[in-house]
Write a structure and sequence with these properties.
globular; single chain; Rossmann fold; 2 domains
C-alpha cells in the first residue's frame, strides 16, 4: 500500500454530557440528521459530515481516499458527493450494505418501481388471510404494538419478494428501516437506545402508519432526486466487507493517497445495539449470540457473549503493538487496575 498519504483520525462521537454547554452536537451524528442521505439511518457513534466535508474539500479528483472503519459510510458518501473515489471497509455486513445503498445512484425509473411496490404493499395490508413473518427478535412485542408489527411484516414481505430491481429494493429497505424505528417503542434519550418506560407514545398513533410510509418515501425519494443534480457518481464511494486488520485481503487497490477515518471505541460502545432491529429484519442477524460475536470481532466487547469473552481473553504473545510507548502505557494502567 502506498506509504505517502495523508491521515486524519476522528474520535467517535463524544458521549452525551450532563453539562449541556460542553456538548458539541454539530460534531456528532446529530449534525447528519438533516443532511439528506447522511441522515437516512441513525448510528450514535457516527461522526459529523461537516468534519469530513472540510477534509474532503482539500482533496482533488485524483486522490484515492481510504476509510478503514466504514460505520454508516459518512466518509464514502461525502467523497462520492464531491466526485472523489473512496473505499471503505467494515466487519458488519449491514453497515457495508447501508454505505453502498447511500452511495448508489437511483434513476427515476427505479424510484417509480419502488413507489409501485410500496403502493401495492399498502393496499394489501387489510388482507386478513395474508400470512405474516416476523424476525426472531427476543420479546419482539416490546418493540412494536401487534397491529404495527403486522403492518411491518406484510410490507416487508412485498419488498423482500422484489427481485426485478435491486436498486429499488435497497431504496425500499431504507424506507422500511426508517419506518420500523419511528413506529417502535424505543427511546433515544440514552446515549444509544433503550425502551420507553411507559410503553409506546401516543404520538405513534397520531399519524396512521400507512401515511408514515408515504411521507418517508416522499422525503427520501426527493433526497435521491436532489442528489442526482450533485456530482454523485456511481462507484466513487464503495464499501467492502472485511476485517480492517487485514486490509490487503479486502481492498481492490493499494495506492491510497488519503486516509480519513474514525476508529471505533474498543470495548466501550456497542455498534450492534441500535442496529439490531434493522439487522434482524433484513436477515443480517438471527440470534443474540450472533450480535455478541460481531461485537467481539469489531471491538472486543460489549454486547451479550462479547463481555464474557473479554474477561477470559489473553493477547497473542507473538503480536506486538507497533508503538514504542505502548508497554509503558499498559504498565501505568496496571498500577491502578488489575485488568
Amino acid at each position: 500500500m502506498n506509504t505517502n498519504f495523508n491521515l486524519t483520525l476522528f474520535p467517535d462521537s463524544p458521549l452525551p454530557s450532563t453539562t449541556t454547554h460542553l456538548r458539541k452536537e454539530h460534531l456528532t451524528f446529530k449534525a447528519n440528521t438533516k443532511q439528506g442521505r447522511h441522515g437516512w439511518l441513525r448510528l450514535t457513534p457516527a461522526y459529523s459530515v461537516h468534519l469530513v466535508e472540510e477534509l474532503v474539500s482539500k482533496c482533488n479528483q485524483e486522490d484515492l481516499v481510504l476509510d478503514p472503519f466504514c460505520g454508516t459510510g459518512t466518509t464514502a458518501l461525502a467523497c462520492a458527493q464531491s466526485g472523489i473515489t473512496c473505499h471503505t471497509v467494515d466487519i458488519n455486513p449491514f453497515l457495508v450494505w447501508l454505505a453502498n445503498a447511500k452511495c448508489a445512484r437511483y434513476s427515476e425509473d427505479t424510484i417509480e418501481t419502488a413507489r409501485t411496490v410500496m403502493n401495492t404493499a399498502l393496499i394489501r395490508i387489510n388482507d386478513e388471510h395474508h400470512t405474516t413473518w416476523t424476525p426472531p427478535i427476543k420479546d419482539i412485542n416490546k418493540w412494536w404494538e401487534p397491529d404495527i408489527l403486522r403492518l411491518l411484516s406484510m410490507i416487508f414481505e412485498q419488498i423482500r419478494n422484489l427481485t426485478s430491481c435491486n436498486e429499488a429494493q435497497s431504496l425500499l429497505y431504507i424506507i422500511f428501516c426508517r419506518c420500523l424505528i419511528e413506529l417502535s417503542s424505543v427511546s433515544f434519550g440514552h446515549q444509544s437506545m433503550s425502551f420507553k418506560k411507559d410503553g409506546p407514545s401516543t404520538y405513534l398513533f397520531e399519524v396512521p402508519a400507512e401515511m408514515r410510509f408515504r411521507n418517508i418515501f416522499q422525503r427520501i425519494s426527493s433526497e435521491v432526486l436532489d442528489s442526482a443534480s450533485e456530482s454523485l457518481q456511481e462507484g466513487k464511494g464503495e464499501a467492502f466487507p472485511g476485517d480492517s486488520r487485514q486490509l490487503d485481503a479486502v481492498l481492490p487497490l493499494k495506492n491510497y493517497t488519503t486516509v480519513i477515518t474514525s476508529p471505533p471505541y474498543p470495548n466501550r460502545m456497542s455498534y450492534i445495539r441500535e442496529l439490531r432491529p434493522y439487522m434482524y429484519w433484513l436477515g443480517y442477524l438471527d440470534s443474540g449470540n450472533q450480535a455478541g460475536e460481531l461485537d467481539w470481532q469489531a471491538i472486543g466487547g460489549t454486547w451479550g457473549c462479547a463481555t464474557s469473552k473479554l474477561m477470559s481473553w489473553t493477547p497473542d504473545p507473538n503480536i506486538r503493538v507497533p508503538y514504542d510507548g505502548f508497554d509503558e502505557i499498559i504498565s501505568q494502567i496496571a498500577q491502578n487496575s488489575q485488568y
